[in-house]
Amino acid sequence: MTILSVDDSTTIRRIVKRSCEELGHTVLEAADGAAALAIVAEKASEISLVILDWNMPGMTGLEVLKTIKSNPATKQLVVMMLTSEADMNFVSDALKAGAQNYLTKPFDQKMLALKIQESMSMVGA
Amino acid sequence: MSAEIALIGFPRLQEQIASRLLSEHDVKVQRIEFDEAAARLSMFNLALFFWPDGGETAAQRLKSMRPNGEDKGCPIVIVTSNTGQYTAQKAVGVQAEDILLTPLQPHDVSQKLAKYAGVAKSRETAAVDADYINPFVAGTVDTLKQMAGMTCERIGLRLSNEATSRGFYSGTIGLSGKAEGFVSVTFSKELATSVVCKMLSMTPEEVTEEDIRDGVGELMNVVAGAAKAELVNTAHAFQISIPQVFSGGPHTVAQPRGIPVFIIEFEADKQPFDVMVCLRQRQ
Asked: In chain A, whose CA is at the least distance from the CA of B144?
């Protein structure tokens, strides 16, 4: 399955890509919200999961999430927030906006893999 | 950078006493005259204004320096006696922020300097106000452990009036909200390379300069996020910005005027690195 990794840090995108590929998934990448929405608009039918950072230049992850979830063509996408924002208010805002999963940085590889698998189990649910 | 303190209207003996007590801190003291005070006040971090017992002339002069209580850029603390404080009290909250009583006591002077100019006297003084440092320490240790599988240890904490990084790579994040300032991590070239290689499971030959810069910035982002979550319901709550990375050797980070920087010294893989925290509550 295909996963879209959205983060302005190439370091995080590489870590996510490695984990996803080890689990047998294909990864698309976007460095900001606008690029992510362009990919989602073009390839929504291919993408199963969006792994989304919060603090990025331009649109925030929450804005991207709300845009995805407000569009009938993309609202079925499973979204997992992967962010350094560990404050419960942020978690609550993301879940209310439709995110299905939330992982805070710092994370280790095992936890990331576990969360990806957990999120993938929600695809089509 | 030393905080600039103005002495206004001090008699000679009181000026000598105040100067001696202030000299125990990292400050620059300058006597200024009444007629130049209004024009020059904004150049200082704190002004000590001498208020004699009667105080009528002093009240008028203070009003002329801050008509209607405006120009709150430089805090003013009135220095007066037990008798003088009764008249001086009327100016507190309008033209001045606070009162210091004569004879001046070292502890009182230190307290006002810390409160209004962010000047700490010593390591001991700093430790009292350093509760907000612990989340940054814990965040650094946890981030390196989880993201790079590295064990690091805090080996020291010191105060500085200048935010000069000693490493080759520095990641800095601006903080704003109830508290404002910045946090910065600074690594040697070798340690930055080692940390980023471990994060990416790559060899030093495989990582590029851009990989290292991005990795250092992301580490700072994660440390700041972890500390932010711990401080969310405190007076030091803050929002974080996008990290900026500097490379090429020692450099100085611009800091809020007169606010000292805590430099937390760590060691990872037997190599030193620093996390600098400069944070003050907004007035």
From this structure: A106
CA distance, residue A45 to nearest chain B CA (Å): 30
DSSP-derived secondary structure for B100-126? EESSP-HHHHHHHHHHHH----SHHHH
Interface of A with B in 43-82 (CB under 8 A): 55-57
Report whether pLDDT(A116) > 90: yes
pTM of the predicted model as reported, rounded to 2 decimal places = 0.67
Contact by Cβ (8 Å): B280, B129: no
Instruction: Give B165→chain A minimum CA distance, Å.
Output: 23
Intervals of chain B under pLDDT 50: 122-128
CATH of domain B130-281: 3.40.1550.10
CA–CA dist B194, B190 (Å, integer): 6
Q: Which of A8, A15, A57 sits opposite B200 (nearest CB)?
A: A15
Inter-residue contact B52 to B88 (CB < 8 Å) = no
pLDDT at B48: 94
Q: Inform me whether the pLDDT recorded for A78 exceeds 60.
A: yes
Domain boundaries defined on chain B: 3-117, 130-281
What is the ipTM metric for this complex?
0.91
CATH superfamily, with its number, for domain B3-117: Response regulator (3.40.50.2300)
pLDDT of residue B69: 58
Given an 8 Å threshold on Cβ–Cβ distance, is A105 in contact with B143? Answer: yes
A9 touches B at CB < 8 Å: yes
Residue B41 has which token pair?
Answer: 């006040």
Domains of chain A are 2-118 (3.40.50.2300)
